[in-house]
Every structure is written in structure tokens, then in C-alpha cells.
Amino acid sequence: MCHIASPSCSGSFFFWVILQSLSAYPAPERSTIMLFSQWALLLTVWMLRVEVSSFNLDTQNVMNLRGEAGTLFGFSMAMHHQLKPSDERVLLIGAPRAKALPKHNANVSGGLYRCKFTTQSDDCERISVDIKDHREKQWLGVRVRSQGRGGKVVTCAHRYQDWSFDNRRLLGRCFVMEQDLTLMTDGASTRTICKNREPEKHKFGYCQQGVSVAFSKDNKYLVYGAPGAYDWTGIVHMEPVNDFSLETYETGDYNQPQQKLISVDISSLLGFAVDTGMNLMKKGELNVVAGAPRSNYSGEVLLLRPEENAESRNLKAEYILQGPGLASSFGYDLAVLDLNGDGWDDLVVGAPEFSNKSMDEDVGGAVYVYINQPKGQRWKQIKPVCLYGKRESMFGLAVAHIGDINQDGYQDFAVSAPNEDTGRGRVYIYHGSAAEFHQKPEVLDAGVPSIKSFGYSLAGNMDIDDNGYPDLAVGSLSDSVQIYRLDVSYIHKIIDSCDITAQSCFTYTAQTPTYNHKLRISYTLKADTLRIERGLHSRVVFVNPEAAQGYQELSEGKQECIQTQLRLLGNIQDKLTSIFISLSISLPSNNPKQTIRNLPGLEPVLNALQEHVTFRNAGCGTDNICQSNLQLKYRFCTRDQQQDKCDPLAMGNDIPVISPGDKNVALEVTVTNKGGEDAHQSQLFVTFPEFLQLSSFELKKSTQDQVNFNPNENKTQAEFQLGNPFKRDSELFFGGEVKDLKAMKSEDDIGSLVQYKFRISNVGRPLKSFGSVVLNIQWPNATKEGKRLLYLVQNLQIKDHRENIIHCMPADAINPLRITKVVPSGDIKLKNDHLLTCADDLRCVAIKCPLEAVDSTTDVVFHARLWNNTFLEVQFSLNYLDIVLDAFLTLNATLQNIGMQPSDIKVKLTVFRERKPALFSRVPWWVILLSILTALSFLILWRFYFFLHRSKKVFFFFVFCVFLFLFLCCLNKMLRINN
After folding, report:
1. pTM, full prediction
2. What ranges cover the FG-GAP repeats (predicted)?
3. CATH number at residue 541
């Protein structure tokens, strides 16, 4: 089900592309060569791999916070940054078994504490959540979450009981507070989603709301887990934070609740853990991730999407991830974050009760890391990376997104193992990277023998000491919390990063002079928006992702500014186009009911602003436009590994000839940029035929740090990262006997496969609905005599970047014969020229592919077969032919001021005659037997010849010669038939 990803390495090689014909070696020698190559590669990787390991968290000066004994102080935590009445960073700590306050009518109710970051271990104050209701053993503080900078706070009590009926109902409830931890007005603080609903056990009588809770990533919704609903099937409930004009959603449908709509069975505990993401399945779409640790006997995780129609408000399960191992509690905790910086949210899932006796070492818990794929539509095909804990350690009981603690531009996460080390507990920290994440973790110990179950809860992803780096808080079951701050002096810079400061300033003016109310706005910053819209990776990341969105209060006529830090990622390819940073603002509705009643409605103000960061290219001249002069030279040669040289191959009619005795055939490629300016994002694509296997490649010493090599799995294609796009003409070999259509039962009988790929990119402004683009192709279908040339065999249905299907016309151009009719044979005469075009020698079909509004990049792929019979029947003395295909774009615009630059291209396909080496066929057994019998007959006749009379010898000799001649003719005829 899962795999362990290997660490990425980089090395330096000599720029040779080695093509090794393994068939030239005997089997034992071939095996030895392959084994030696593998060990040489491993040795090279080991020699070139350099690990830089550093631990940024200060383990010497740990801040300790302690609560009253037996209160479970630290059971849950959240870092919070309030802006009013004063700018202050605090740690919110839940103690679900704390004694009730004196004014509360209860003994043990649980509590919420607000702790400052000082050296005093008891610098915490109790927050009074004053509710006139039954509070006994409600476990207030079982969960606490913060909305972020200047946002709201929610805390829950999942054992809250409702005494309004004869029987007690275990509903659970949550409280939403302002950023200063005061209750919201108009009764909007108390949230009890199962109140006034069917009280039965198989309905909503034992919801236990608040076992898990999370703010949505867009800060508009609150997501609750209620694992006790529907006989502990569980539900996930999503409702607005304060803008009640938004809809409410729920698994099983909020408007018309139906248990059958929930994708898990009873006793699954759906909602035991919840989190949200905005880039899980579609960019900018809100999705909910919920754990059901008892579903299907091992645990499952559901990826939910809000589904809305005229009557339904359902959270529908789009994907279900299944956990391995019986009773592993897969989905006990989970976290959504972007580990590899590709702009798509990844998923970390804990399974603390996983065990496997068949493994080399007993394991006690596991964590599964799902690295999202582009477009987020392949969750079922993703093989997670598995991390295992030690025996009985409960590894994965808590997982948390902790921000970028090592400041390498990638997000990190922490995993707890509270039962490890005989119950003392440990915390493991994993760092994100461009290649998924680093599997070698950093380890935290409590350092205090009295602390038990260290790591039972985790909180991070916020800078608490205001030094610009995120910190980590670790809770336990010993009524204590340890806070680890990042020690800047331990940071090892791996790359020279570039920090960018984006300053956003806001102000508003009122037409009425007496209007001086404070205005609260919501803002969102997005970086490298143009690349993200085209489906590419962003080149910058926010140092603190939470700072990319938030709230700001404005006074009339007074300007307020915020600064947001961004960091440029290392090893970026695109250093030419600007980095656009967009800012969108809106006016949130704090109390729509009061607004509608007393004031005219305020429409949300949406104002998208953009600034950009421009790269300064010293090698591109004063106009900042690179005028490069890329040139390519290549030659085939035989590689002498002993003397490190390459001897050119023999040439036949200006074509390299590869003999069976040539063991190491190399393709030497030289790319130069003499007299030109810097060439960015250049690439070299090489395609190899199947009979020449790609063995290895080397780089010259002067280019070791400039070229990256990426072959495909079957070593038939290779991509070299050099700079700006550069492609070679394709080459194709043909051969085989001539077949009529009746003998062609499959596409392979037609001839070799040819693939044309056209990539259309819009680097200007989006067309949207103002125009559409059509791809026009003059397809070389046949020769002048009607002989088929390039036969289209695959349906021309392609998809653009939005997965919209594009239909090319005419449809009857695809496989029109259905391989049922015989093409009439005849002599074909082509002019004695290398080049065949639609204008002179070919019959071409006009194909049109409407691309509609091209706002990004679209790939159009054509699959065809080279009609082998035509080239085998044609009589021409050339060794190769060039077939030219014409393609161009046309624009259909509704406005006259929309234009497009000319885009005509010619694609050349070179077709070679196949050179077959001389082969010796095996002689049939009957030929050998007949030859032996004939030889014996001749021998007997020859011996009988000496006993004849002299007058009869002449006649006998004549008959003997005629018989021998007829025998040789028959033998030659039979051998021809056999071959």
C-alpha cells in the first residue's frame, strides 16, 4: 500500500550520451556489465551525496508551563495572535478536568487558560466562559483552535449534557470567542449543532460535538466533528463563523438528514479528526478532510466536498483513503499542508495503533504521508510514504503542521509517540522538501523524568517570541506544557535565499464628514498568481503562511499598513518573467441580521490589486530581453572508455553506419551560445530507438553544474535542462514485408507509431469569452497517386488544462477504412528530392481543432501510423525522405482590438530506409535428409559407372548431369519458399 521514498541526490557527469548495444555481449559478460554499472552508480551517488543536518529548536532554554495536578492541563493547545486591545501573542491551553469556577454551579467543568510567553511557569489566567447551563464534567477545553492573526477562537466541551428532556443527552457544544477571548454578542458564541434534533441514540442523542474542530482555511467556516451521531457512525458539520448568509453543510445532508448518505458504517467514529484545505482537489476550492478511525475495522479518511442543490446541503465523500492493518486507528489525527511547495495540499494521517509482527522489528503506530498530484484528482492512485514507530509507542497519536521551522522554504510537520521510552514519550519532526519530504527526523525528548506521555498534544505554525521564526508547543498528560523556540544561531543556509517584503496599505474616506466608524476589512495575498493560473509551481512562498490572509481595522482618513515576508525558492528555472503578487479585500458581515434591520445592506467590496517583482538579468542587455544564439552539433561515435575518447562511426551516404560489432555507440552533443546573451529555460530532448539502449551519460567538466539529466523509465527518451525550449526533428525507421488490408488485423500491422504533440500557450492576457483560437493542420494523408502516408488511428479528443474535451474536425479523418478494403497497388513515382510537402507532392487533409478561450497552456496530441506498404512499394533511390506538416493558429475574436501574432510552424518528419544485416536462415531438416539421400544415390551411381561398357558411359554421364541440374533447381526453389 505504501512505499519509502529515497532521498534525492545530484551529481556531475561528462556530457556524453552512451548508447550501449547489450546484444553484442554474451550473457555472462552482459550480466557482469550491468552489475558493475549498478555498483558504480551507487558508489557515485554515495560519493556525491552531502547531508547538511541542523536542528533549529533550542532544547536548552525550554519554557515550561504547569497547571494544577489532575486537570489534564495541556490536553489541547493553540497559538493565538490578538491585535486588540493590544498586540499580544499567547498560548491557549485546555484543561478539560479543571475544577469549576466559584460562580459556576458545578464541581469539575474543565477550563481554558491564556498563557503568556515568559519565564514564569504559572503565568496563565483562566478564561471565564460564563454559560447558564449544566457544566458538570463537560470537559471544556478538550479542543481549542485559533483562526490566526486577529481572528477568532473556538473551544469545545464534547461531554456537555442536555437536561431538557427526561433522559440526559450527551450532545457536546463549542464556544466561539472574539480575538480578545470575550464572547460574541447576540448569542452567537454558543454552538450546539445537535440541539433540538431527534434525541434517540441512533440519531443525535449522543453527538459529542467538539471531539475535533477546525477553522476553514478561507476563515469563513467552522468545521466540527461529532463522532457519536447516528449510533457512533459520526458526522462532520460545517457552518459559518459569523457571516450567517452562508450555507451550512453536513454529512448526511443538513436540510434533510439521511444516514444512508454517509459513506461509512455505524461505530466508525467519523469526525474524530478534521482539517480543511483549499488546494486538495481543485485550486481555491474548500474541502474537508475527516478521520473515521474505526471504519472498516482499520480506519478510513474521507475527503469531503460541499454539495449544494435546491434541497440538499450535503458534505459528499469524493475520495476515501483506507487504512491498513486491523484496528490500526487510521485517521485518529491528521494534518493538511503543502510539503513540497508545489501549490497543492498534501495529507498526513496518523494510525497510532498499527502493528505488524511480520516486519523485521515490531512497530507500534504508523503515519502515512500522501503527496498530492497535480490537479488533485488522483488520490486513489497515490501510494503514501509510510513512517513507522517503535513497539507500543503510539506513534502517530498526534500529527501537526508546525510551519517552516528550518526556513528552507518548505512546510514541516511533527509526529508524537507519547508511549515511547517506557511511557515518557518523544516527538519527531519531519522537514518538507522539493522531493516530498526528508524521512530522517529530528527527535525531541521531554528532558524531565517526571513528565509522562510527552507529545500527547502539539501546536505550532506561529512565531510566539516575535523573532520571525515559528515555534513549537508540546503537551503531555502530566499537567505540563513545553515550549520550544527556534534558535537562530543554529541555522545552516543550504541555498542563498532572497527575501521579499510586500507592504500593503489601506485607507478609506467617507463622503459624510460625520461618519467616523471603524471599518473592518478582510484581505488575502497570493504570490506568483500568473504561474499558478497556468498550473505551474510558485517560485516564492510566504515565510508565515498565516500572514497571507487576515483582518485589518481602519479609521476614516487614516492609513494602516501591513508587511508580509516572502522567500524566493532555490533552484528555480524561470528567472525572466515577473512574480506577480495579488491582493484582494472584502468587507465581512459581522452581524447581518442587525445590519438588515437597521441599515441599508452593504455590498462586499472586492478590489483585486497586483504588484510584481521583476528579475534583473545582467546577461540580457539593457532592455532586459535575452537575445540568445543557441546552436546544436552532434555526431555518432564509438566510445573508448579506457582512453576517454570517441571515434566517429563509418558513414554511408552521409548516414552513420552501426555495425553489429560496435559495442559502445555514443551520441556526442554539443550546445553552444556563442555571441548570444543568456538563454533561460533551454531544454534538449533526445529520443532513442528501441534497438539502441541508453546506458549512461557524462558531462564535460565545464558543464557539470549547468546540465540536469532526466530520462524516462524505459530509457527511450531523455530530457536535458539547458535553458530556453529547443527541439530536434524526429526520426523514424520503417521496414517489413508488404501487407494488404486483409492481413492488417491490428494497428501494428500498418506501420510504426508516430506522435505529434502541439503545445499552445497564451503568454498574454486571458481571452475569456472575447475570442477563441483554432489550431489548423495540413495533415499529409497520402501521395499524389492516392497511396496512404500518415494514417490517423486515434480519436482526436484532447483535453485542455481545465479537463474540457476538445473535438477536432473532420471526424471521418480517423481510421476511415476500418482496415477492411484493399488499397489498389501500382507503381508510385516520387520526384528525386528529399522533401515532400502539401504544396507539391502530397494530398493533405485540413484538420481544425477549436481551442475556445486559451487562457493557459493546452496540449494537442495526434497519433498516427506510418503506412509501411507505401514506402516498401515506392521506387526511389534516396536513403531518406522528409515529410513536412504545416500547422498554424487562427483567432476568432468578437472585438477588433484583440490580436494575435503569426504562429505558422512547419514540422518535419524524417523517414529512413531500414538497413537489415545479412542473416543466415536455419536449413530445414528435410533438406538435409534429402541432400544426404541424393549424395548417396550419386555415389552409388558413380560406382556403378565404372562397370558399364564404354559405349554406354557417355549416355550415362549426360543423364547424370541433367538429373543433378534438376535437383539443384528444385532445392533452390524449396529454399526460397521456406524463407
Report:
1. 0.53
2. 196-248, 316-379, 381-439, 440-501
3. 2.60.40.1460
